[in-house]
Amino acid sequence: MLNQHSIEELAEIHNLLTDIKQEYKNGIKPILLKNSSNLFNNPHTVPKLKKIQINRGLGLVAQNKNLLKKSIEEFEKITGQKPIITKSKKAIAGFKIRENMELGLTVTLRGEKMYAFLTKLIFFTFAQIRDFRGLSLRSFDKAGNFTFGLQEQLIFPEIDYDDVEQTQGFTITIVLDNCLPKYRKTTMDRILNGMILFKFLRFPLNDVGYYAKYFSFSEINQIWDKKRHLKRKRWSQE
Known about the structure:
Layout: H1 4-18, H2 20-35, E1 48-57, H3 65-79, E2 84-87, E3 102-109, H4 111-125, E4 146-150, E5 170-177, H5 187-200, H6 217-237
Antiparallel strand pairs: 1-3, 1-5, 2-3, 4-5
Helix pairs in contact: 1-2
């Protein structure tokens, strides 16, 4: 028999699967405002999803029109949106790159397509990755956005194995809208906001426990500064 915690957990996952946008609006946001009033003193300070950017670098392979067309079709199947072809801004002779040369694909998802893609990513796609152990907190940047890579397109349910000629990955950036007050505009505050939102969205972060031994974010910040100092010292000695 399931205990009360398990029932609540299943109900939360069911709501996210049904409509992740409504669950954020009617469930996650009110809870953060009520239980974390010291961090979120008004609705505008609660972190929210802004957009999801999906990129694929093809390099010189993009000059093959058939492979480029295949990649565009895969993007359309996975995201439900036609990608933009990215081009080089300047020529680089060493890499055989000419100016305005086609090199990759990019898609920016907003609104309903963004939430639909995120739901598929969290609850279906990650489960298809072999030996998946979660995503690292270190993938947050200074703005509080989260970037990670996927090595192949076969983990998406829309892609048929027989149609894939060569495996190609993606880089996915989840951009958050952080409207923080003046006293909470540090990098750690932005990362904290992202961690809190991802926890409610059931995002598989794997090294949260590593930071549990610290009592405050100032201690974590000191550890990061120490590691950066050691890296600089090691590089200077090489």
